[in-house]
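User: Could you go from structure to sequence for me? I need the amino acid at each position, not a summary. Structure tokens:
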């Protein structure tokens, strides 16, 4: 495995420390302090329950999006801070510095909302996130830049979609306001990552499943422009 670049290596010990904190956890869910807790039937039932709050019912998807925003911050902030010093290209350093700055603000908002809704938050990256962090620190040069951007852009795309789904469906007004404020944060972070030139088709999440997709136009024939909806609805008159 290639060794990290000298600049990245200076920041690697701090990132490695984050990895070691959770590397030996047994399987199970994480408590609010990040410690592993063995799952049980009561835990699973509670996770699927809807609880009453001052802002309306709080369901599983509401709690999950709050936890996922926190989970993203736990690995993306240290990776972005490391990359702003150790990335090979200036464009990558600038983009990741902005991601770290914005993500820190989003994490602050997320913790405030979680506290008001009494949603426990993790304190360590997940096992999968730790593997991404380890993968990134093991790269050098342009491979370091490309891997950091690819992993982060993929994760941001998934989080953006989850925020949109919760924004559209939640019955909890505080969660709705949070998702409405958080989605532009994530959108801007995706834009920052895309300025690096390392975002390609293989760095994007899979497109959503469509049950009845519209058919493509006939090969070799360009579809004509559709008339205005108001014209169609009025019968063309």
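Assistant: Here is the amino acid at each position, in order:
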């Amino acid at each position: 495995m290639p060794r990290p670049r000298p600049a990245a290596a200076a920041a690697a010990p701090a990132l490695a420390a984050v990895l070691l904190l959770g590397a030996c956890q047994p399987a199970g869910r994480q408590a609010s302090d990040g410690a592993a807790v063995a799952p049980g039937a009561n835990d699973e039932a509670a996770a699927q329950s809807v609880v009453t709050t001052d802002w309306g019912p709080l369901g599983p998807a509401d709690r999950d999006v709050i936890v996922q925003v926190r989970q993203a911050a736990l690995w993306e902030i240290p990776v972005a801070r490391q990359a702003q010093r150790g990335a090979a290209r200036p464009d990558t350093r600038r983009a990741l510095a902005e991601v770290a700055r914005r993500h820190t603000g989003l994490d602050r908002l997320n913790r405030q909302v979680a506290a008001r809704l009494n949603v426990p938050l993790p304190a360590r990256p997940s096992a999968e996130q730790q593997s991404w962090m380890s993968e990134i620190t093991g790269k050098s040069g342009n491979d370091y830049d490309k891997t950091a951007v690819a992993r982060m852009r993929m994760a941001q795309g998934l989080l953006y979609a989850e925020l949109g789904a919760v924004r559209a469906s939640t019955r909890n007004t505080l969660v709705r306001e949070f998702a409405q404020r958080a989605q532009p944060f994530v959108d801007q972070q995706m834009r920052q990552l895309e300025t690096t030139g390392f975002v390609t088709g293989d760095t994007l999440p899979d497109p959503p499943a469509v049950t009845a997709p519209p058919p493509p136009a006939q090969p070799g024939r360009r579809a004509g422009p559709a008339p205005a909806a108001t014209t169609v609805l009025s019968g063309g008159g």
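One structural detail worth keeping in mind: The CA atoms of residues 16 and 195 lie 28 Å apart.
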